Amino acid sequence: VENRAKIFSPFAALRGYEEEISEEGWKKTRVSKKELSEEDIDRLSGLLRRIRSGMTVTVRYFQEDTVHPASPPLGIFCELTGRVERIDPVFQTLHLSDGTVRTDIRFEDLDDIDIL
After folding, report:
1. Three-class secondary structure of residue 7 per DSSP
2. Where are the domains of the chain?
3. pLDDT, tens digit, for every residue of 12-31?
4. How far is the C-alpha of 76 from the C-alpha of 68, rounded, in Å?
5. CB–CB of 100/89 below 8 Å?
């Protein structure tokens, strides 16, 4: 049985094959960034004014694919639940931490906010 297994070992030598397959999957799941309506922008602005440091929120935001840039921007929508570390009105960013990783999200990339 051991000798038979050695016959198939050359197929494992295709280095980078799994990474290439997963990258192709990533490219197929990319979508265009959607434009928010004025009502949605006003609603998000109101929610951002209510958020304070230390609060727990769930945000849905657009993450642009910077490895394969396109015009208009393509990427995926991500959802993240974390503690608000800071809201920066000057640079218009929301800083969230899930306990291990800090994520900085631009206001223009926000799609939805849920205050927990």
Report:
1. helix
2. 32-115
3. 556 666 666 666 666 667 88
4. 13
5. no
